[in-house]
Design brief:
The chain is an all-alpha fold. It is built from 24 helices and two strands.
C-alpha cells in the first residue's frame, strides 16, 4: 500500500511532464518545413530520368509529414478545448510586425490532417509520371508544406505569404503537365487567384495597422480589436472576393472547370481535396471569426450565394459532356452547402459546413482520381465516345459506383451526414425568418435532387452506354490496378467511417465551432437594423452590450501548466 501511495503521484507527474513536452514540441513548424526541405533535396536524388527513385523519396517525405500531423493531433491537441493549441511564436521581423506564429484549433486541425493525407495519396497517384519527375515531385512537396501553413499560421501577413506560396506550384503543374489547353487554364488560374489575393494583403495591412503604433497581424490581437462596423464591412467585402475565388463562389468560379479540364490526376486531387477548402476555411477564420458584426450582415448573402452555387453548378454539370468538367461543376455545387453552413448562426449548421469541407475533400479527390484513371485507359473525356467498357473494367465500375454514391449523399456516407447537418442546422436557425428558411431549403433541395440524376446517368453512359466499337475493340482496357484500388480504399475508409459514426470527426472541432457561433450570435444581437426580410429582429440585452468581445480561451500549454 505504501509503495502504491508513493508511485501514483510520480506516475501522474511523469504523465503531466510528458504531456507538457508533447504540447511544446514544434509539431506544426515541423509539418510545414519538413516537406519544403524535402522538396529542395529532390534535385540531389540520383535518378535515371524516369523518376523511379524520386517518387519513392517523395512518397516517404509525404508519409512522414502525414505521420507528423497525426502525432500533433494525438499528443499535442485536445479536442475539448476551443482555443489555440500547439502554439509556436517567434518574432521574425519585429519592425514590420511579422511573427512566425503557428497554432491549431478545431477549425484548422482537421484540415491540416486532410492536407497531409490527400497529398500523400496524390504522390502515390503520380506514380506513372515520367516527364520531368524531379520538378513534378518538387512542386508537390512544396505545395504540401505551403498548404499546411495556410491552415496553421496565426499571423495574417504570414497567412498571405503562405496563400501565395501555393499559387506558383499549381500554375507550373497545370502549365507543364496539363492537357492541350494547359497554358490557357494555367494563366486563367493565376490571374484569378493572384489578382484576388491582393485583397488579402490590403485587408491584412489595414487590420494590422489599425489603431496606430507597431503593427500586429496576429489573429489573437486582431480578434480583440474594436473595429468599426463600416471598417468591418469594407474588409469583409474584400476578403469575400478573395476567398470566393478559391472556394469558388459563382460567378468567380470560371477558372476551376478550365483548371480541372487540363490537370492530371494528382493535381486534380490537390485542387478538389485541399485547394477549395482553403476558401471555406478562410471565410470561417477571418470573415466569421475576426469580423463578426460584418458577418452578421453578410450572412444572408452567403446563404443566397450558396443556393446559387448549388443550383447553377448542378444544372451546368447536368449539361456537361466532358467528364472532367462535369465533376468540376459537381464540386462547385457541393461547396454551396459550405456557404449555407457558414452563413448559419446555429452550431449544427456551421459544424455541417466544416464536415462538408472534409467530406468533399475526400470524395472529390476520389472522383477526380478515377477520372484520371479512366482517361489513361480510354484516352477520351467525351461521354459520347465512351460506352460498353463495363464488361472489361468491372473493378473500375465498382469503384466509380461507390464514389458516385458517396458524392450523391447516400446514407452511410460522409456526404449524407454533412449535408443533413447543414439542412437541419439552417432550417432550425431562428436567427432567420421562417419564410426565408423555407425558400432557401426548398431551392437547395433542387441541387440534392439533380445530383443523383447526373451522376448515375454519367455512370450509365461510361460503362453501359452505346458501345464505341473502336474503343472496345482496339483499346487495351485494363481493369483497376492494385495501386489504384489501394488509393480509393484509403479514401473510402474515412468516407464510410464518418458516415457511420460522424463523431469520429465532429468531436475534433465541436468546441471551436460552438465558440465561433457564440461570437457571431453576440454580434448579431448588437446589430441595430437587421434585415426584416431575412433576419429576425433581436432585442439587445445589457449583458450583450456590456461584453463587446469574447475572452481568449486558454491554450493547451496554459491548461497543463495550471495542472
Amino acid at each position: 500500500m505504501l509503495e502504491f501511495a508513493i508511485s501514483a503521484p510520480l506516475d501522474t507527474g511523469a504523465e503531466l511532464l510528458s504531456d507538457q513536452v508533447s504540447a511544446n514540441f514544434p509539431w506544426l513548424s515541423l509539418s510545414i518545413l519538413f516537406p519544403i526541405v524535402g522538396a529542395f533535396l529532390v534535385p540531389f536524388i540520383p535518378d535515371e530520368g524516369e523518376g523511379k527513385q524520386v517518387r519513392w523519396f517523395a512518397l516517404g517525405i509525404a508519409l512522414v509529414t502525414f505521420l507528423i500531423t497525426v502525432a500533433a493531433y494525438l499528443y499535442g491537441y485536445d479536442p475539448s478545448l476551443s482555443g489555440l493549441q500547439l502554439s509556436e511564436r517567434v518574432s521574425w521581423l519585429p519592425d514590420l510586425g511579422l511573427t512566425w506564429a503557428v497554432g491549431a484549433d478545431g477549425i484548422s486541425m482537421p484540415l491540416i490532417l486532410l492536407t497531409s493525407f490527400i497529398t500523400a495519396l496524390a504522390v502515390l497517384a503520380a506514380w506513372p509520371v515520367t516527364f520531368k519527375p524531379k520538378l513534378f515531385f518538387f512542386l508537390i512537396l512544396a505545395m504540401d508544406g505551403g498548404q499546411i501553413a495556410v491552415f496553421a499560421v496565426q499571423d495574417m501577413l504570414l497567412f498571405f505569404l503562405a496563400w501565395e506560396l501555393e499559387l506558383l506550384p499549381v500554375y507550373l503543374l497545370l502549365a507543364i503537365w496539363g492537357g492541350k489547353k494547359r497554358q490557357y487554364a494555367a494563366t486563367k488560374f493565376i490571374i484569378y487567384t493572384a489578382g484576388s489575393s491582393l485583397f488579402i494583403l490590403l485587408v491584412a495591412l489595414a487590420m494590422g495597422f489599425f489603431g496606430g503604433g507597431t503593427p500586429n497581424f496576429e489573429y489573437t490581437n486582431l480578434a480583440q480589436q474594436s473595429f468599426g462596423t463600416g471598417f468591418q464591412l469594407l474588409c469583409y467585402a474584400g476578403l469575400l472576393i478573395a476567398f470566393g475565388v478559391k472556394l469558388p463562389i459563382v460567378p468567380l468560379h470560371t477558372w476551376l472547370p478550365d483548371a480541372h479540364g487540363e490537370a492530371t490526376a494528382p493535381v486534380h486531387m490537390l485542387l478538389a481535396g485541399i485547394l477549395l477548402k482553403m476558401g471555406g476555411y478562410a471565410l470561417m477564420r477571418f470573415n466569421a471569426q475576426l469580423l463578426p458584426e460584418a458577418h452578421a450582415q453578410f450572412a444572408p448573402l452567403l446563404i443566397v450565394l450558396g443556393v446559387v452555387n448549388i443550383i447553377y453548378a448542378a444544372l451546368t454539370s447536368f449539361a456537361q459532356r466532358n467528364l472532367k468538367r462535369k465533376i468540376a461543376y459537381s464540386s462547385i455545387s457541393h461547396m454551396g452547402f459550405v456557404l449555407i453552413g457558414i452563413g448559419s448562426f446555429s452550431a449544427l449548421g456551421t459544424s455541417g459546413a466544416m464536415l462538408q469541407m472534409i467530406s468533399h475533400g475526400l470524395i472529390g479527390a476520389s472522383l477526380f482520381f478515377l477520372v484520371g484513371a479512366t482517361y489513361d485507359r480510354t484516352h477520351t473525356l467525351q461521354l459520347e465516345e465512351m460506352g460498353g467498357v463495363g464488361q472489361k473494367m468491372r473493378i473500375m465500375f465498382a469503384l466509380w459506383t461507390v464514389c458516385a454514391l458517396a458524392s450523391l449523399a447516400l446514407p452511410g456516407m460522409s456526404g449524407f451526414v454533412s449535408e443533413l447537418m447543414v439542412f437541419v442546422g439552417f432550417a432550425t436557425d431562428e436567427a432567420y425568418t421562417l419564410t426565408f428558411r423555407i425558400v432557401i431549403a426548398g431551392l437547395a433541395a433542387i441541387g440534392v435532387i439533380l445530383t443523383p440524376i447526373y451522376l448515375l446517368s454519367m455512370l450509365r453512359e461510361i460503362f453501359f452506354g452505346k458501345e464505341n466499337d473502336q474503343l472496345v475493340s482496339h483499346t487495351n482496357l485494363v481493369d483497376a490496378e492494385p495501386r489504384e484500388v489501394y488509393i480509393i480504399s484509403c479514401l473510402l475508409v474515412p468516407i464510410i467511417g464518418i458516415g457511420l459514426y460522424p463523431r469520429l470527426m465532429t468531436d475534433s472541432y465541436t468546441a471551436s465551432i460552438q465558440e465561433l457561433v457564440k461570437r457571431d450570435d453576440l454580434a448579431l444581437q448588437r446589430i441595430k437594423k437587421p434585415s426584416a426580410l431575412m433576419i429576425r429582429n433581436t432585442t439587445m440585452t445589457p449583458a450583450v452590450v456590456s461584453s463587446p468581445r469574447l475572452p481568449i480561451t486558454q491554450t493547451r500549454s496554459e491548461q497543463l501548466t495550471r495542472k
